[in-house]
What we know:
This is GIY-YIG catalytic domain-containing protein. The protein has 181 residues and is α+β, with helices and mostly antiparallel strands. The protein has one domain. 40% of the residues lie in helices and 15% in strands. The strands form two sheets. It has a three-stranded antiparallel β-sheet. Helix 4 packs across helix 7. The radius of gyration is 16 Å and the shape is globular.
Amino acid sequence: MHADALTRPGQLWSAGEVLSRPGPVPGVAGAYGWHFEEAPHPDLPSGRLLYVGIAPRHMATRTSTQNLRKRVRYHFRGNAYGSTLRLTLGCLLGLELRRVGSGKRMTFTKAGETVLSGWMAEHARVCWLEHPEPWTVEAELISSLDLPLNLDQNRHNSFHPRLTEMRSQARQRARELPVTS
């Protein structure tokens, strides 16, 4: 079963390992799972899988150019605008979301993203499962596992309403603040 590869992986990888060159993450399609040694919120369990994602995303007209290596690395060092996982973690950790650039993008600004990257380097670990069409297993994983950090396709999770509200409040506060660089 696909879930076992993510819930009970043979190895979990740290930011340092994933970001090293050439690094262990393959440049192929698949699903990835995020485990947290320390939970990002007191109401969440630690030491287990809390989020899954896929790369590439399958869209109606095309498939994205992402792969496991690009996507996992981005989650570790990108920003909240390009990573729903980073957006979720930052909101749970109480970082201030801000509108940046033209005002349409929202991130935790350079300082906040640096704090988030440091927190992830210390507490987040990732594993993956190679799969040629990961979108075919995503719904199965989300419906069969307790993944409190996933929002899409996950309304059945008891943490969903709380996380949705926290993210909504963070976005609303960001809209009320001036745009920053």
